[in-house]
Amino acid sequence: MATFSEIAGKRNSSSLWHGSIVKKILENQHYIGNLVQQKEISISVTTEKRKKIDPTNYVVIENTHKSIISKDDFHVVQQLISEKNRKRPYAKKHLLTNISICPDCGKSMHYKANRKGYICGSYKMFRSSF
Questions:
Q1: 71-84 and 19-26 helices, crossing angle to 10°
Q2: 3-state secondary structure (DSSP) of residue 31
Q3: Tally of CB atoms within 10 A around 47
């Protein structure tokens, strides 16, 4: 299955799905037949900057179109996502994070405390073996 960036024809597209995109798809109410509006507002007419709105203040119109998944399945997934979410109070930035470069793929290296060393950004994101 092609990723959104591949379909759009972006130069830096990849066939690997990023976890944040998958999470956005799983949290999208459009798949259960709801229309969600007013997620963002314009700060000013003279700028393209937008301000995100708190999800409790979204305008949700239910059953505007045919759903492709059941609401029960959707709510189970939302419950699983909320249980898995964790707060990261203050991430520690290590000295060489985003400065050291992976010799295999060219992505930046990130410090992992449980390994007491650096790992490739691509491996961290996609869990690929290089």
A1: 140
A2: helix
A3: 8
- Taking the alpha carbons at both ends of the chain, their separation in whole angstroms is 22
Give residue-wise pLDDT tens across range 4-36: 888 888 888 888 888 888 888 999 999 999 999
**Model pLDDT for residues 84-101, shown as the tens digit of each residue:** 877 766 666 778 777 888
95-126 residues labelled b (16+ CB within 10 A) or e (exposed): eeeeeeebeeeebbbbbeeeeeebebbbbeee
H or E element in which residue 30 lies: none
What sections of 1-130 are H helices per DSSP? 4-8, 19-26, 71-84, 121-126
SS3 90: coil
The pair of structure tokens assigned to 41 is 């507002």
Tell which residue, 62, 59, 52, 55, has the closest CA to residue 37. Answer: 59
* 104: its two tokens: 């295999």
- pTM exceeds 0.85, yes or no: no
Token readout for 49 is 């900057």
